[in-house]
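User: quick one
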Amino acid sequence: MSTGLKLKDKFYYLLMAFYMAVIAYPLYLMVVTSLKPNAEVFTNPFGPPKTLYLDNYANMISRSNYGTYFGNSLVVAGVSIMMIVALSALAAYVLAKHRFRGSAALYAFFVAGLIIPIKLGTISILKLMIGWGLHDGLGSVILVSVATGIPFGVFILTDFIRMIPEELSSAARIDGCGEAAIFARIITPLLLPAIAAVAVVNFIPIWNDFWFPLVLLKSDAAKTVPLATALLFGQYQTNYGYVFAVLTMASVPVVLMYLLFSKWFIKGMTEGSVKG
Amino acid sequence: MKTFKHAKAVRTIAVLLVAAALAAGLSACAKKTEASKSVTLNLTSWRTEDIERMNRVNALFTKTHPNITINFQPVNDTEYDANMRAGLETDTGADIIWLRSYDTGRTAYDGGWLYDLTKVIPDLDKFPPSAVKAWSTAEGVTYGVPSVGVTHGVYYQKSIFEKYGLKEPSTWDEFIAVCETLKKGGENVFAQGALDDWTLYEVVFSGLGANFYGGESARQALMAGKAKLTDPNFVAAFKAIDSLQKYLPKGYEGLDYVSMQQMFGSGQAAMFMGGSWEIGVFEDLGSDSAKIGWFAPPVAKAGDKLQYCFHVDAGIGLNKKSKNLDAAIEYIKWVAGAEYAQAFMNELPGFFMYTPAKVTLTNSLAQEMFDAAGTADNTVRTVWEKLSAQSPSGNSLMGVALPGMMVDKYTPEQAAAYVQDQLASWYAPFKN
Amino acid sequence: MKRNDGKTGRRFDRLRTWVFRAAFLLPALLVYAVVLLIPILDSMRLSLYSGGGLVPTDFVGLANYVKIFTEESFSAHVWGAFRNNIVFFLIVTLIQNALGFFLALAVTRAVRGAAFFRKISFLPTTLSVLVVGFLFRQMLNPIWGLLGNYPWLGNEATALPALAVAVSWQFIGESILLYAIGIDGIPSEHLEAARIDGADWMQETRHIVLPALMPIVGMVTLLIFVGDFTQFDIVYSMTTTMANPRYTTDLFGSLFYRAAFSTPVRGGWGMGMGAAVSTIMVFVVSLGVAVWYYLFKGSRRGEV
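Assistant: Done. Structure below.
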């Protein structure tokens, strides 16, 4: 970029500072309010808390089933991502390395799913899950998350596998390995960066999904964190400090995940956008 | 050959993952059925504000029935109806379900999900007939224990009234005079907003407006199709509510129900048009019966009889498909009895039990509210019965018309016409 | 010599190859088709039915659609949601897309701190839309909020924009990320050549950066479009499924939820009608994608 004058840079940093403030302030407010007792929220709405009031968090953990909700979200995210990776990798391997009549169409078929909003089939998905006996169980949300994540997985992994030099597979084939063994022993280890990217990119929307848990899950034992957030917000609306503690707790895992794994995340998005 | 073993391995892993997911799902379902002797009954209602209090009340049941615990999981008021129905339809509903009166609760029975309680409720014949009707079919099947009624009126902060030397108004003109004085003094006259769709209809219109449209007799005429919402008496009610617009706080268009409660409870406004159920909320916020007073909806002219909206609020139903039917029946019998009634009214002042037993009210505000019914003509919320059975329901239409009127989107006449015309699209007695 | 990619070899080998291919493809294909694609088609089928309960059973043909488009109390909601969604989309595009583009330019500058800004800009996107909605709702409270006594969420003119601002605040980081990646991908020789020729920042942007980023602009626009026209969470958290005030914040997502899953008292229409709403959404989104394709791909087929 052009070399700026001192003034230009000052203006730039001012702009950036303003932008950072716009991002940070609501988050700051969320955390700070969660550390106040309800009365102080009204007398001192925007300033830092007078004391570090941890009761809101303590109450949330002891009075509500927060541990269960958190565990459910973890199971849903974990199992879904494993399945997305596994299923996508298997399909991507065939689509990348094999050319047969219809393979291009099949690939397009998968990738089209990137812009098909699964929400539009919700009524029938609910019907399906009830029919299979999966509603009000984590399995229903898992299956939905997997279906949503497969297009991106196939999209990313197919290209990635294509880039793996054919010589490696050919050499293995000469040695007597079958396709499946090639996949398991040679391709998969090389795929790890792409797998990590797919995993991290999918984690955020799966963790934060509200719509499908709202429609598919009913009993308390099955709720995930976003659903519990909405429930607790409704139950304790009159206690603002508590409500913000709930919001903060809901946000910590994903923010942490992002800060720790942003490298993989960016890698995943890079792959996706470069091809788009 | 070697290759096949590996292919199988990969495939097996994939299958196992799917199986693991299904197992996780099914086990979450299975968790609910407990094989042990101790039973947990799931109870649901729309009263999310009452978790602590309800737990204390239900603990009394567990004292006499040690192997039965009640797990109270309320759902936010606005989501409750859909949640309840969805739960019943998909067999994931609670065991004990609070039911709204008339059509909304009736759909649960019509769907075949509720247990017939006609022979289960002890002394059903001693319950007030108007209450029983709200949870029974015309053929005499009662599907909900008539549990709780609520009333509507105006709360006020005693200290603010004393400051201006104000007395509780009994007529509308006195009421407006009080509002004027407070406004001139710079006080927030009402902690009232126009954002939430239901508050203006359920409390302000049905509560304060009833004195203008003529209470129960007008409501009956309306349901029969003999009266219209565009008739002068109903329009007078709309107009009266509209006249309160200038006393609403700055920003009232964006003030939601919870903020309203907070505002009044923390002493930032002089009056609050609300329901008897709010007593507990205000107490929790620091405004107990020593600090706040209450008066009944002011009558239109001096000498009028009070038309008092004593609404049939909640009945208690039993899920036919409950996995702990016997324990649930025990609980139903208990909630229809005196011990529950007394404990409930102690913990949740402002809810008036229909139970035919002698109970004493400990809260002075609740006592005032209850006494007002003695000398009044009682009615229920305007378009609750029959007129909200289908879409667009009377309730949701009022929820658009009244807030719209309060932000001057509609005139009182237009608001009335809006509800009337939309109802006429499906309500047979209105089509002519 | 072992088989190669299935083109030669004995029939048994070919069969084995196909079995292998099927085994690898089917799991993903099945889950994708059965859980994502088929339900959408099935919902379209269900829209031709009516009746209470979870699964409508009376076949009524196009009666639901007739009802939706001829009866005022239904059509008002559908057209209202459509109009709101368009306004919503335009505001979000302006902030998230246009402003995001310029911010992406800013965070890719070769100055100290730019990488940090870039990393932080994505933070709001990691939150749940629900959390953002609740947060903004509290901030806009007329009594205790940040922005004074004005009823932002109560005034029909400002409520929907408030939702759009909240969503943009949250997702601008995603646009910045994608644009930044694109900017990173511009070969530095191009930029240097332009600099040598004396181009300033604005000319550089217009003639080099923007054309290079056009595919990404297209992708971001498409993502925003599909996301906005199915957006539900922000309405739920900021103005409830009743889309207060008076349905002026109603988007297709909230209309669909309310129509399909609420009781009549709260504005529900029954499952058959709800399915009709989701089918209408399918058409609207498809139409939008078709328009997008024409704008971003069709007219560019001749260019690089």
